[in-house]
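Example for tutorial group B:
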C-alpha cells in the first residue's frame, strides 16, 4: 500500500483509508471487526470515524477502538467534533463543547490520543479563533497529534489558516469534503486554496454513494441500495439522468482501457495533487479489498486525464 504525506506535515497515511460510518449502524460489531482487521492486514493505516456514526451515535468509535486493540500503533485515527450526537443537525464548536466531546471520544476509542482531530461541520455561532485556540491547547496537551477540518468553503478554510498563522496556533493540515468524478464542485475554489496553503484533501463519497461502482444504470436501480432508498437525498442527487449518463460514459472509457469504473474513480482521485488518501466505506470485506486493489492498478496518463475532464465537462464529441 502506498503511503502519502498529509499536506506538508510529516504524517503519512495509506492511499486508501477506511470509512467507519457503517460500523454499529448498517453492520454489526463482529462484521465491522473483520473489516478492520482485514484493512490492517492489507496495509490500510487511516481509519475515519466520528461520534455521530452508529445507530445511536458513538458505536463506531467503540467498535474501532476495541478492534484495534494492541494494533493501535498501526493506525492513524481520524475522529471529529462539533455535530450534536442526537442527529438534530446542531453544530457547536465552542471551547466547552470541544473539550467535552474530546474526552468522550478518547474513552470510546480506548486511547489516550487522537491522530487527527477534525471539525466535522461549520458552526456559524462560534468564532473560528475560539475553535482553533481550543484545538491548539489539545495538541499542546498531547491529546491530539494534528488537527483538520471538513466541509468548509474555500474562504473559511483560508480564514482559519490566516488566524492560525497570525496567532501562532496549530493549523489544519487536512480537510474532508465530498469529491468524486460525479461531484467536482471543489475544482473551482477549494482545490486551488488547498494547494496554496499546503492543506491535504481526504475526499469522502469517492464512489458517489455507489453510482461509480458500475451497478447503476437507467434501467437498473437496486431498490434496497442507498441511492435506491434515497437515503440523505442521495438518490435525488445521483440518479438524475445526466449523472447516470456520466457514469455510463466513464464506465465505457474505463473499459476501453481495460479497467472498471471503480478503478477509474479511485485512480482519478489519487491523481489529484491535494489528495493524500481516499476514504472508502465498506460493509463487506470484498468491498474493502476492491477499493484497496483499485489504488494500484492504474496510473492515468496526462492524455487519459484530459479525456476524463472532457467527459465530465460533457464534451464527448
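The residue assignment follows.
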Amino acid at each position: 500500500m502506498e503511503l502519502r504525506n498529509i499536506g506538508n506535515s510529516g504524517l503519512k497515511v495509506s492511499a486508501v483509508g477506511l470509512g467507519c460510518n457503517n460500523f454499529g449502524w448498517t453492520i454489526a460489531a463482529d462484521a465491522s471487526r473483520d473489516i478492520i482487521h482485514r484493512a490492517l492486514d492489507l496495509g490500510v493505516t487511516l481509519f475515519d470515524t466520528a461520534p455521530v456514526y452508529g445507530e445511536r451515535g458513538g458505536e463506531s468509535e467503540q467498535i474501532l477502538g476495541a478492534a484495534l486493540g494492541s494494533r493501535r500503533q498501526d493506525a492513524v485515527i481520524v475522529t471529529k467534533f462539533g455535530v450534536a450526537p442526537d442527529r438534530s443537525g446542531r453544530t457547536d464548536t465552542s471551547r466547552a463543547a470541544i473539550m467535552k466531546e474530546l474526552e468522550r471520544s478518547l474513552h470510546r476509542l480506548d486511547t489516550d490520543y487522537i491522530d487527527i482531530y477534525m471539525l466535522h461541520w461549520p458552526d456559524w455561532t462560534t468564532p473560528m479563533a475560539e475553535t482553533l485556540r481550543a484545538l491548539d491547547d489539545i495538541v499542546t496537551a498531547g491529546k491530539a497529534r494534528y488537527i483538520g477540518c471538513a466541509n468548509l468553503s474555500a474562504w473559511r478554510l483560508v480564514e482559519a489558516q490566516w488566524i492560525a498563522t497570525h496567532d501562532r496556533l496549530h493549523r489544519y493540515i487536512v480537510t474532508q469534503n465530498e469529491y468524486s468524478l460525479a461531484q467536482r464542485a471543489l475544482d473551482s475554489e477549494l482545490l486551488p486554496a488547498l494547494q496554496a496553503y499546503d492543506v491535504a484533501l481526504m475526499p469522502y463519497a469517492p464512489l458517489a454513494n455507489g453510482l461509480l461502482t458500475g451497478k447503476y444504470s437507467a434501467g437498473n436501480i437496486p431498490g434496497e441500495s442507498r441511492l435506491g432508498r434515497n437515503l440523505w437525498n442521495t438518490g435525488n442527487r445521483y440518479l438524475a439522468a445526466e449523472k447516470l449518463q456520466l457514469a455510463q460514459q466513464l464506465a465505457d472509457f474505463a473499459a476501453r482501457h481495460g479497467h472498471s469504473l471503480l478503478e477509474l474513480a479511485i485512480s482519478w482521485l489519487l491523481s489529484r495533487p491535494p489528495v493524500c488518501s481516499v476514504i472508502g466505506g465498506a460493509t463487506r470485506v470484498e468491498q474493502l479489498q476492491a477499493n484497496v486493489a483499485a489504488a494500484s492498478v492504474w496510473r492515468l496518463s496526462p492524455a487519459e486525464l484530459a479525456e476524463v475532464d472532457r467527459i465530465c465537462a460533457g464534451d464527448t464529441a
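The mean pLDDT is 91. Compare this with the pattern of hydrophobic and polar residues in the output above.
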